[in-house]
Amino acid sequence: MQKWKIKLWTFFFILYLTLPAHAGMMENIAKDFTPFTAYVAAVTEQGDYVIAADKDTSFAVGDIFQVFAKGESLTHPVSGEKIGETEKPLGALKVTRLQSTFAYARALGPVGKIKRGQEIRRFEGTSAFFSDTSGKGGHIAAELRKTLPFLNWQSAQHLKKDPETASLHFIVKNQRLEVRDSESDMIQTYSLPPVSGLSADRSGETKDIPLKKTGISPAVFAPEYQQHKMIGKFSERIVSADFLPQKPGLLLAAAGTSRIRLFRVDETMEELNSISLSPRKIQMLKWWQPLEKESPYLAVTAWDENQIASEIFAVRGNRLISVEKYIPYILGSFDRDGDGSAETLFGQNFDRDIVWGKRIRQMFPEGDSIKSKAADFALPPDFTVTGSVFADLTGDGVQETVFIRGNTLKIFSGREKLFETSGIGGSVSALTYETSPEQLASIRKTVSFEISPIVADFGQNSGRTLLVSGVNESMLSVSPLYSGFRNARLLLFQYQDKNFIRGTIGEELQMPVQGMAVRGKQIFFIQSPPASITSGDRVSYLYAYDITR
């Protein structure tokens, strides 16, 4: 028999063997994306939507609903009989959190005016795109179109023309099929059946690609979690917060514009004391414990008129006692010996042109005062003492330097950049200042003081995990008066197969995160609203996730 006939029969035989597996996968896809009708029950003051459906119908976080309004009546051109009505699409909603009998959703892209009682349909009419990074999954596209005919299948060219369209992206990659929405959030993932006798495709893997050439990897892991619960409510808008582990719970320092409050946090939140720094404006709080078994210090970065005027307090019982005032440095504390305690405090000079100056001093207590000396090790360029952490993420026994600057996360080994990705941060602690306050034609600049990532073990198989706060890049603002921050997320980065991969914790959050801590099987975090021209200061909340390991 000729060789081409042998190859042809081999191909069809392999295809025959894989058809049942593909059929099972398509059955699961059909079930996961089954359309159903729901309705808008209410529109909240924050602009979110409460949606409800039949009792036998359940929502899932990430579900996309198309919103329709009735149009004109249609009649048969011959008989004149009414045959239906046209529909006007108003936009799409994305489910963000669940309740027992209803769900909360927000607009996914631009939407028209949506009222109570508006009909919405799960996935029906949603734009869909198919891509195959492996080059061997083309036959899946036809099966998807047949299985999900209610989707509005589009070409890749349409996606390039209108990237903001609410959509589903079906991506064949390695030995799996990923389904993501237009914000790149994972909705579902399916394992593709292996093809006997053929090597698995590895064109999409990143493990053999040099780190400095890789970008952000898709979300490929996410610890299981229960829906976050509220621990407490603050009486003001919190711009900065930091947690200190203490038995049996946590000591929390939280600051509004000019007042610092101390809390004891466990399953509840108890206020212990407070102190005012008025008229100075607080930008960042960081716990510092330079001496083992000694009481901790609280390093406070503050702004006074036209200069940095930071202060360090010693904790005595439940009181804050000032030990050094009007320090001309932005302050940040670090755990450099890996024992879980931030024993090192850096001060970075404020440069009016570039904000983050080149001079970094190391602080240390001496008697009843605080002294400083030049930092005794090299730091990467553009390093910032806020929004940063030192940790051994790669498992080589040497700490990497991690920091967030300009909504970009950077990871360095010494002075070599290992990884960089955007869409990180989004702190509401922002400072607008004059570059030359003595001149009439001074330029105004705004800088954000990002909260530091934290490192913890989330039960993954390889290495420690970096927990950071992130927001949708399209919603980032350079103005502290802007009230449009949305799509805040708790993001995970973990080193696997010579690359940093990304994951998520829980659902999308309604407000930016201004403080985080991991204790046991819980993640504590504070959500704060951005400043608003119209609403003024609003309240903040302390939440916790229970992580299943």
Q: Name the shape in a single word.
A: elongated
- Span of the ends, CA to CA: 57 Å
- Spatial strand order of the main sheet: 1-2-5-4-3-6
Largest sheet: 6 strands, antiparallel, barrel
State the helix count: 3
Radius of gyration: 27 Å
What is the average of the pLDDT values? 81
Low-confidence stretches: 3-21, 195-220, 473-485, 533-537
Percentage of β-strand residues: over 45%
The share of residues in helices is: under 10%
Report the count of strand segments: 40
Structural class: mainly beta
Structural write-up:
The chain is mainly beta. The chain has three helices and 40 strands. Strand 1 (37-43) and strand 2 form a beta hairpin. The relative contact order is 0.10. Mean pLDDT is 81; it is low at 3-21, 195-220, 473-485 and 533-537.
